[in-house]
Every structure is written in C-alpha cells, then in structure tokens.
Request: fold
Amino acid sequence: MRSALLDRGLWPLRLERRARPSRAMRLAASPLAAALMLAMGVCLSSLLGKDPWAAFSVFFIEPFSSLYGVGELLLKATPLMICALGLALGYRANVWNIGAEGQLTIGAIAGSGVALFHAAALGAWALPLMLVAGIAGGMLWAAIPALLRTRFNTSEIFVSLMLVYVAQLFLAYLVRGPWRDPAGQNFPQSQAFADNAMVPMLVDGARANWGFALALAFALLAWWFGARTAAGFRMRVCGLAPAAARYAGISTQATIWVAMLIGGGAAGLAGILEVAGPIGMLQPVISPGYGFTAIIVACVGRLHPIGIVFAALLIAALYLGGESAQIELQLPASVSGLFQSVLLFFLLAAELFIHYRLRRVRT
Amino acid sequence: MRLFTGLPGVCTVRITTGCNVHDAMPRTPTRAASERGPMIAAGPPRLALRGITKRYGETIANDSVDLDVAVGQIHALLGENGAGKSTLMKIVAGVVTPDAGRIEWQGEPVSIRSPAQARRLGIGMVFQHFALFDTLTVAENIALALGEPPPGRELVARIAAVGARYGVPIDAQRRVHALSVGECQRVEIVRCLLQDPRLLILDEPTSVLTPQAVLALFETLRRLAAEGLSILYISHKLGEIRALCDVATVMRHGRVSGTALPRAESDASLARLMIGADLPECRLQPLPAGEVRLALRDWSLPSADPYGTNLQNIDLEVRGAELVGIAGVSGNGQAELLAGLSGETLSADARAIRIGGRDMGRLGAAARRRAGLRYVPEERLGRGTVPEMDLGENCVLTGAGKGLVRRGLVQRDAARRYARGIIARFSVKAPGERAAAASLSGGNLQKFIVGREIGFAPRLLLVAQPTWGVDVGAALKIRQALIDLRDAGVAILVLCEELEELFAICDRIAVLARGRLSPALPRSHWTAESIGVAMTGDFGALGVA
Reply:
C-alpha cells in the first residue's frame, strides 16, 4: 500500500539514508525518547482524568524531595547500573547475554553461602569474600551458555534466558529447604545476615549504601576497559565488524568467554549487593526483574558507561514514581512497566533517524 | 517478441544515421561542458538530463550535470571513483531523487520516483553485483523481476528467443548456483531485455569476464544498439570504451568535464580528461629473486560454502624481491585462496603452507601476521577496516604487534601518528586521522589500507584487487608502492582480475581456474589469449610439465 503511494508520489515524505550517521542524533536519541515518554505520560494522565501536572509531580518530584527518597533512588539504580554495565560490554561485542537475572540470583546465593555459614569466623573479611563469591557465582552461571556457545554453537540468548528460571527455582528450593531459618516460623527465608556481612550505609537517614559508590567505580572501570585496553578494543571490533575481526586474527571464542564472564560477574555482584543490602537475607524473590530491566538500561544508555549511569537513574526513578503513583493516584502497578516499554519504543524509533532522515519528495 | 515495438517513426530514422552523425562531428577532442552531446536534428534524444544536482550533506555528488543519450547510441560515462557516475545513474534508475534539475524522456519531462517507474518507462540497469537467487532457476529468477510474467513454457521460449537473437544464449532451466559469473551477467542482461527497455545501463560490466567473453558482450551490445536501444556504459577501462562507445561523457568532481569521441582519442588523452593531468608510468626493473618466503605444496582446501570452490593440489613459490600475480575471474577459488593464505580459514595439513620457512597451515591469522605475512583484502569496508572506527583505531586493528598495543593497552597517540603518516604519504583524502573509515571513498580507503600494511614492514604481502574501483592516479601510486616494496626485497602475491595491471607489475603470473592453479610463468610467457584459455581451466597448452 505504502509503496503504491510512493510510486504515485502521493506520499509526500520519504526515508532517505544519510550520507553519514548523524552525531547530533546519536546524542539526542535517548533524551528525545525520554521527552516523548513524558509527553505520552501527560496525554495518558489527561485521558484518565487526572491533572497532568499533579501526576508529573507525583511521579517525578515528590519521591525525590527528601533525603530518604534520593537514597531510595540510588539504591534502586545500583543493581540496574551494575548489571547494565556488564551486559553492555558484551552487547558491544555482539554477545547477547539475556540471563543477567539468573546470574544475579546465583551470585546472591553464592555470596549468601559465605554470609550464612562463615561470617562469624571471617570478621572484617566477610563482606569482601561475599562480594568475590557473588561475582564468581554469576560468572559460573554465565559460563554455561559461554561453553555451549563456543563448543556447540548454541544460541547464548536462549540458554542464558532458560537458566534464569533454573536459578530462580534453585533459590526457591534453598530457602524452603536446606537454608531455611529454623527459627523463622516456617517462612521461606534464610537467617538474617550478621552485621559484618552487610554493606555499610552511605549516610544516616537513607537506605543507600556503598554499593552505589561501587557501581560508579565500576562504570569508570568499564569505560576504561572499553576505550583503552586491547581486550576492550578487540571486543568492539567483534561487535562492529565480525569479518574485520577474523581478518585481524581476533579470537571469537575468547571474546564470547570474556563478554559472558564480565556480564555474569557483574550480575552476580549486583545480586550479592542486593541481599547484603536492603534485603539482608535470602528469600524466594530477591529482584523485581533487575536483570531484565538492565537490558533496557543498557540500550537507553546506548551501551556507553556514562549513558548507562544516567539511564539507570532514570529507570530507577520510573520504578519509584510508579510506586508513588499507585499509592496517590490509584494507578495500576503496571504503570512503571508501561513507561519502561514506551521509553524503549521511542528510543528504537529515534535510533532510526541516526542513519536515516525524512525528506519531502518534490512533486 | 515485443522488443522495441511501438518506437516512434522518428527513432527508426535515427537508428540508421546513429553512427554517421558522430563521424560527421568535428574531431575536436573535447568540448566545453556547457555544450550538449551530439545534436540530433531528427528528433528528441532518448534521455536528456539538464542541470541535475544532488547533494549529500556538504558533498555535492552531482553539480548541474547535463547529459544527452541519443537513440541507438552507446554512450560511455567515464570518470574516476567518486566523480559522481554512480549517483547520476541511480537518479536515472529512480533509486535516488535529485535535488534540482530536469529529466526528459523521449522529449517529455518526467520525474522518476522509483525503480518500478523507471522500469515502466523502459530503463533497465545491469548492476555490477548481481541480484540473483542462487537456488532458483534462470526462468524463475527472471519471472520474479517481471511484473506479470507469462506462463512458464512461454517465458522459457522467450528467454531462448532473446538469447538466440542477441548472442546471449542461456539455458532457462538451469539453477543459478551452477552458472559461471559470465552466465549470471547474461541472465541479468536477458532479464532487462525482456522488459522492453529503451535504455540499458551497464555498470562496469566487464570486470567479471574473460577477454574472450568481453568480445562476445561487445558484439551483443552493438547488435542491440543497431536496433535502436540506447546504452549507457559506465567504466574506467579506457581501451574498452574506445573499442565500443560512440560518445563519452567524462565526469570529474561531480561535474561534466567534457565530452569526447572515444574512437578519436588515445588512452592517454582520455585519461587526461578524466584526471586533469598526465599519467606517469610504472617502471619494473628485473631483479634477482631472493629466498622462498611462501611455499604452497600440494595444498588442497575444501570450501565451507556449498556453492564455493574447493582448492585442489595447489603448488606455488613466491620469493623475496618478486611480484607474483594470480589472474582469474572471481568465483574460481579466489575467496577461498585468500582466506586460506591469510589464516582466516585453517588448512588440514600444516606443511602445505610454509611462510618464511615455517609450517603455518594450522596457524591462525594473528600467528601468520607475526611471521611477517601482511594482507590487503578485497573488501575494504567491514573486513580491511571497521567502518565505524576512526583511522587511528583502524591502524590498531592489524598493528597490535607493531607497537600500537603495549602492556595490554591501546596506544592511541602512536596509532594516530601512524595514521597521519599514511594520510600524508599516500595522499589519502580524509578530514584527518579521526575520520571514520566509512566516511572515506573506496579508493581513498584502499590507499589507507595498502599504506597501513606496507608501513608495518611485511616480509610477505598478499594483496587482493589492489586497484579495484580506485581512480587512475591513485592506482598508479599503489602500483608504484608495490613495485618499490618488491625492490626492497619483499615477496608479493597479487590476486587481480585486470590483466593489464598484472602485465604492468608482475614478474610471474599464474591463473586460477576452478580451484586449480596453473604454473606461475614469467610474464613474457603469457599473452592475453593464452591467459584467456587458461582461465577456462585448460592448462595443457601452456607448454610446461
């Protein structure tokens, strides 16, 4: 239909490939998508009969008008940022690890093992060892799809995704069975972690902890790795031009391993920071889907560490705004998911204009 | 056969007088761009472009271009790479819309908004790279291109009729993957002819043909032109244009720099029009060859691609201070040979490939590079360079062992300095070392890649299509750089489809045909005819054991 219109010249606009990708559009795509998402939010709340300004205030201003609220924002942003930074390094190398949620879960379990059974003996070493165990657990879970991909050419997308559910069921088994707190009145949860197994707070009066500082440090490290090291360079070449990687003699197998292990390790770190932070114990559900949302964060951040820092804060704000909208505006819980999807939708649309532009066809 | 029915009577008159008009033209070599092509008294030209302008950002691809193509004329469009030939043809074929200017088709102003509309007007284009489905038959491929194809048996009959009439015989029932490249091109031509074209555009059509097949193609084109078909022939091969075309429009920097009657010109005068300066010549002095740098012994390599070519029992030696060329039409194992030599594909037998005296058949590209092998691949964008990365980073791609990576860190300053050096030495037209590889034209990118690999001091250099799509001036520079490198003692192996080039730069030449390699004989041993015979896979006549 559209092509028939094009033929007859009735359709006045035409997509034309740009001579070179637009740098301005590349920078503007994410802010533009966020602005369009806000505009859609205004339309939506008007349609629902709410005052758009009041809704905006409930969503984006009230939750962060107190120190506690800002702390919550940083707390939510931490796991999203860490997972997304790890995933983005892999995505830039064309390795599509979708299973960060599962690697996060296994990381949390591995770190909790240290906390539950060895914390008393370790003293001040407990927390560092828990973090190392968390990273190792995430890496182990990511090593399975890496091994299957490099040995049997299976898709890392499907294997990593399916392993999410295996990990979650394993966690459910542990907290209902062997690791259940004997004094917990049969609730499916582990013992609470000892104080030396908890991440210290950043300031008084807010729940944010040193995990956020760790996340920022990780962002810096990820940027350095991608932009300065030869290994990061090789990964980018693999992602941008696989034939050039073969020509240069870069090992695809090594790239897949490095990408999967970094992504898994980061997710594992996020997992142990979550259970050793706001949660303080193992329970059947330890994440509201941080590992999946991190995929959106990585895309909105355009796979760049600095972009990811801001994208993680934005998505965390959407989570919190969604909660306050539920309470104050009686909007359904799915509203923050809706905003995330709309943001991604507008982002994909905006990305088209990096390589194309709209041109009026002369008649 | 409905070919060329419905031509206005005026046109038939033009057909008979087509050549005479040009012969009657004054034999001045060039005329100013503002003047039009041969004036035709008897009727409007088939295609007239007036003031066609097309910009991409700040670059002007076409700057008020005028062009007339008469009925029954074979009109050459000549120019260096980036001169704007392709953009102009895309405008005529409806792929790109111009920013300004008029198009007149048989005297009527038209605006061509889509390829479909161009086809309806009667404009057919044979692209340099074929668009055929490998798994379908010839007839099925042609049926796909026709809007309302006739029933199968009738179509087969029509393909046979067109093929017989114009000397492009083709078996409509064969599947495309079983065809040679020359046959694929015939399918493309027949496909265009079945759409009743009035204007046929051919983009570098001879780059995939043997010398004998080129002669057959020219015969076909002359027969078509004699029947009133207008032909626009894009090429940079001066000899062919002089042999085939009635008129040549020469483009330079997006403008028409002149028109010429090719038969009245020499290669040198045409080249001068094209590049605006005289061409220096390459010198190749005989040198004693050094020690063996590359030795292939009974090397066989099955292709991973089901439609690829298996390499069979290849023997070859390349010595220091020696330039060896491999001729042959692509699709005869070139891609497999290059991947197998560079280490992108590993061989089963380590001893089949010896580089610098070491068995390397089972070692990858990085190990072979460390042993002194450097490789300039045919695909410049996406293989030889990463399109999105800047020129400095693209030096790091193959420069890891040459000081551009230290202690696991990319040495960005050293890489940029190195890139600046290449840009200066090979006069690469680029805004600077921070320009993305994709922003360079094909020819400039080739100069950059050749410069990059030469600068890393190879002991053995493998080059695929060194000057493919590169303008004449740059091609000479690349050839001279290769010869200088040989004089400095490097062993060089060149794979190339252009025989003229091989004869200009090679000490010895071998022919690759159907996955087998002929013996590498001194260049004085060969003629264009004997290479043409060897390209068919018949090495018996070479007179060597």
